[in-house]
Structures are given as structure tokens and as C-alpha cells.
Amino acid sequence: MISSNIYNYINILDRAADASNLRNELISNNIANVDTPNYKRKDLNFEALLKAEIAGDDLNKAVTDLNKDLSILEPRIFTDNASLSYRLDGNNVDIATEEAYLAENQIKYQALVDLMNQEFARYKTVLSQTS
Questions:
Q1: Maximum CA pair distance of the chain?
Q2: How far, in Å, CA of 75 to CA of 125, rounded?
Q3: Per residue in 1-22, pLDDT tens?
Q4: Quick one: pLDDT at residue 56?
Q5: Segment 70-97, tens digit of pLDDT
Q6: Among residues 40, 44, 28, which one has the least CA distance to residue 87?
Q7: In whole angstroms, what separates CA 105 from the centre of its chain?
Q8: Is the dihedral of CA 121, 123, 125, 127 positive or negative?
Q9: What pTM did the predictor assign?
Q10: End-to-end CA separation in angstroms for the chain
Q11: Contact 92, 36 (CB under 8 A)
């Protein structure tokens, strides 16, 4: 975490990228356990947490307030017992679904990294203009 108000958005993007990386690990673990009897898939839902925290009219104020305590944005891992197992061994991992989640998550991660790079490029442009 960078402790300056200028980096508020980057700090949040960094937390989102960390959550995306963790989700990638969870999905990969789900895929690795596709044949493990009674294994239940694990996941996290960072997007809903972030959306709830920045809800409101003033995004800049919400982001500034959120940067005072970024620990609020700690992703929570859950075991997905909701999706009933259609398999006899009690495993609820569907390989096709997990691969789709993995592809989606990798695209999100790349987008977050691109956004952070764009923010740093803006700062670099501003700093080079003032020198």
C-alpha cells in the first residue's frame, strides 16, 4: 500500500488484483481436485464486497474513505455448498465451469494490471511536464 492520497485508486486496484490472484489459485485448486471424492469447490466474491464499500454518489470520497482502512477489502473464501453435486462421489466441481471462471478471472486480472499501468503512466506524464 502506498500511503499518499494520490495513489488511492492504485491501492484499491492493487487489492482487487490481489483478490483476483487469490481467486486464480482457488480455481486452479478446484480444477486439481476435480476427481477428489466429496471435494466442494471454493471461491471468493471480492467484487460484491468492493461494490458495497464504494456505493453512493461520490466515488472520490468513497475511495478516499476506503483507503483509510484497506483491511475492509480483505477477500473472504467460501466453500460452495449451494451447487448440488450431480456426481455420485459428492464432488461438485464441474471442469468446464471452472475453466470458464479461470479464463474470466485471468481477463479481469490483466485488466486490473493494465489500469494500474495507465495510472502510473498518467503520473509519469504529469511529473515529466512539471520538471
A1: 68
A2: 33
A3: 555 667 788 889 999 999 999 9
A4: 75
A5: 888 888 999 988 666 678 888 999 999 9
A6: 40
A7: 8
A8: negative
A9: 0.84
A10: 26
A11: no
